[in-house]
Amino acid sequence: MASRSFVAVALLAVLFIGAAQAATRAPPPRKPSSYSSLEDLVSKRKDLSIAKFIASQMPEWFLDMYDNFNGTIAVPTDAAFEMYVDIWGGLEAFKDLPDRYLAYLMLYHTTFDLTAYSKDIKGVNHVETGLPGYKITVAKTSQGVAVASPHTIARVIEADVKVGKGVAHIVDRVLIPFEPATAEYNFSPYASLGDVIKAVGANSVYTAMAESEEGQAILDSTELVGTFALPTEEAFTAFVEEVKKTNVSGPALEYAVNMILGDHLNLARAFDSETIASVKEAPVGWNVTAYGTPEGHFFNVVANTTGLYLQGFTSAKVVLPDLPVGEGKFLIHVVDEVLISKQTAKALGL
Ligand SMILES: *[C@@H]1O[C@H](CO)[C@@H](O)[C@H](O)[C@H]1NC(C)=O
Ligand SMILES: *[C@@H]1O[C@H](CO)[C@@H](O)[C@H](O)[C@H]1NC(C)=O
Ligand SMILES: *[C@@H]1O[C@H](CO)[C@@H](O)[C@H](O)[C@H]1NC(C)=O
Ligand SMILES: *[C@@H]1O[C@H](CO)[C@@H](O)[C@H](O)[C@H]1NC(C)=O
Predict the structure, then answer these.
(1) Cβ neighbours of 266 (radius 10 Å)
(2) Are 281 and 303 contacting, i.e. CB atoms less than 8 angstroms apart?
(3) Domains plus CATH for the chain?
(4) Spatial distance between the Cα atoms of 190 and 206, rounded to a whole number of angstroms
(5) Per residue in 89-138, pLDDT tens?
(6) Nearest C-alpha to atom 9 of ligand 4 is from which residue?
(7) Best probe residue, ligand 4, of 302, 318, 335 (max atoms within 8 Å of C-beta)
(8) Cross-strand partners of 148
(9) Positions of the chain with pLDDT under 50
(10) What is the pLDDT of residues 261-284, one digit of tens each?
(11) Ligand 3 site, residue 290, Cβ cutoff 6 A
């Protein structure tokens, strides 16, 4: 096993990054407002000028689908687009993309046959979008409503804006449909585990992993096959606070953190959430040959009407499942707690 020299410094860094993140990602709610149409919304709002540009590029027949709109649309702000357009080499390059791609993007932010106000959203939902065959995941979280595409997790920063008979939710990230982008545009900005972890905003986990050679190799690899349960930024920083209180430091802390990170990893197979829900035990750990053996670490799996849970010494709920890395040979499931298996707890004397 490679260097375990991450930790102490990383954990300190993590605390500050976590605190900064928490502060910047919780915008105050604004009052809901009402517009006669999508065109009316994007024309009247100064912070939606890039969405307005996209609509202006669309042919009449296409925009007709948004007349008397009674569905739901996620509208990214200009700030959200500004982050996204870097991938294309800036705003001007983005605006020069074929209109067909801009149409895909717009459809991917739309569901035509469902008017979903935030009060209607419960639990985790896989929602068909207007782009045939492409789904988004919509989840109610303690931080409000989150919308996940394979490459981004957007937060609804202003919910329930009436648009004609339908509803718009203003979001802080552009939702990126995976296949149209890669297949037709040779576009793979999140080819590695580390890219996805950063895109999801789990900077503290990234920092902790990047402190070891072994961790950094996993973050950077584009060839990995496996599964990672990724704790939310909030869960990880809260956990780090608890660890600090124990005053454990030096090699003992390095060993513990490495083992605990291992409890989030399966390095043998990309388990999608459906497969996990169908097994009793999910094997984890750095040591692939130990999976399924008496020495192996694992979590019990519970799947019921409220969701999918992993249970060990600590337990977590899967809050955003099935985020693929690259072409999906590696899958990430965002979980709401740091996971410690019973075997790790025993080894650490917890
Ligand atoms: C929404 O619009 C579609 C197509 O225009 C229509 O078929 C459907 O009945 C409408 N639903 C509601 C609730 O108005
Ligand atoms: C950790 O150290 C602090 C300061 O030295 C002390 O107050 C606290 O009781 C210690 N905690 C544990 C769990 O030993
Ligand atoms: C990995 O697990 C196998 C099977 O339990 C064991 O024989 C081997 O020693 C372990 N390797 C390491 C590096 O711990
Ligand atoms: C589903 O399982 C979880 C974890 O064991 C539990 O907390 C939750 O209450 C269960 N939900 C139902 C509806 O049984």
Answers:
(1) 24
(2) no
(3) 8-23+190-348 (2.30.180.10), 28-171 (2.30.180.10)
(4) 14
(5) 889 988 988 777 888 889 999 998 799 999 999 888 889 888 877 889 99
(6) 306
(7) 302
(8) 137, 153
(9) 1-26, 31, 179-189
(10) 999 999 999 998 889 999 999 999
(11) yes
